[in-house]
Amino acid sequence: MKIISKDPLVRLKNRSNSSKNIIKRVLTGDVTQRCSRFYWFRQGYSLVQKTTQKFDKNIQDEILKFSSKSSLFDGFSVENGVKEIRRTGVAFGLQLAPEMTQTIYEYAVNNFCFEPGYIDHFKINQIEKGWLKNERRVFRGLLWDLGNCQAIEKITKDPVLLKIVSSYLGYYPTLITQHLTWSIASNLPAEEVQKNYPATNFHYDIAGYNFMTCYFYITDVDVSSGPHVMIANSHLKKPLSMLLTSGRHSD
Predict the structure, then answer these.
(1) What's the burial of 54, exposed, middle or buried (CB within 10 Å: 0-12/13-18/19+)?
(2) Is 16 within the bounds of a domain?
(3) What is the value of pTM for the model shown?
(4) Which residue has the higher pLDDT, 25 or 52?
(5) I want to staple 207 with a disulfide (CB 3.0 to 4.6 A). Which of 42, 49, 89, 211 is the partner?
(6) What is the dihedral angle through the alpha carbons of 140, 231, 188, 106, rounded to the nearest 10 degrees?
(7) For 13-51, what is each residue's pLDDT tens digit?
(8) Based on the structure, what is the number of domains in the chain?
């Protein structure tokens, strides 16, 4: 499951231009996304948000409200976690209770999924060896409306998670999205999987002006069963050519 904390963003209609001309790419397409690739832009946005929220009574009331709640992650050091995220781009140690993991798993099994780009919907038990019963390959299944899953809702509003996000971003998150996704095993060559499931390529995400992501595995994962792979410290000092081109890159 992936929980993403990010700020509202009105996206422009056109996606980023794929021209080989760097200037043309920068000046066309989703300019907002282009700007948010740069550290200085995200820092500036964080400063504006932090300053604005100081004078927003509703935000201040919300901060007091979540600060007084009990957490699923009592004992986790927010300070050390944020330091590690700033240093390497990732921090470990947040664990869901087994009963909560089971609740989310049952929700994922018993509710319908969809795969981006297709109009059909299915349950995970309809997938056999990577194939839907209508003989279509499936690479991932995203659960529909997660608002009915109280366990996910509780995680989303957890005070320790909100404190981590607020400390890292420098302001209280005003939009939180929830994602619960099945990654389907496949015996296809890696190149074919990467073609059909773009997220399996090395990439960096751009979601709004500023954001961060919290991941929780709901099923056991090892090196051969779809782990999330990242390059430590890659959140810092990306080459300019990488910032101005696609966020997706080959191994």
Answers:
(1) exposed
(2) no
(3) 0.80
(4) 52
(5) 211
(6) -30
(7) 333 444 445 455 445 555 666 788 888 888 999 999 999
(8) 1
**pLDDT tens-place string over residues 64-83:** 887 778 899 989 999 999 99
Domain residues for the domain of 142 are 2-8+21-249
CA-to-CA distance for 20 and 245, rounded, in angstroms? 9
Beta strands across the sheet bearing 175-179: 175-179, 2-6, 211-215
Structure tokens given for 246:
């696609």
Determine how many CB atoms are found less than 10 A away from the CB of residue 146: 21
Give the N- to C-terminal CA distance of the chain in Å, as an integer: 24
Is residue 53 within 8 Å of residue 171, measured between CB atoms?
A: yes
pLDDT tens column, 105-132 = 999 999 999 998 888 899 999 998 888 8
Q: How far apart are CA 217 and CA 221, in angstroms?
A: 7
Q: Closest by alpha carbon to 178, among 210, 223, 142, 231?
A: 142
What is the pairing mode between strands 248-249 and 2-6? unpaired
Q: Where are the beta strands (DSSP E) in 125-180?
A: 127-128, 131-132, 140-143, 175-179
Is there a domain that residue 88 lies in?
A: yes
- Whether residue 15 lies inside any domain: the answer is no
d(CA 185, CA 167): 36
CB atoms near residue 31 (< 10 Å): 13
CA dihedral defined by 150, 167, 4, 208, rounded to 10 degrees? Answer: 140
**Residue 13 is assigned to a structural domain of this protein:** no
Question: 4 falls in which pLDDT band (50, 70, 90)?
Answer: very low
d(CA 100, CA 87): 30
Q: What pLDDT was estimated at residue 189?
A: 79
Question: Is residue 173 a contact partner of residue 5, using CB atoms and an 8 Å limit?
Answer: yes
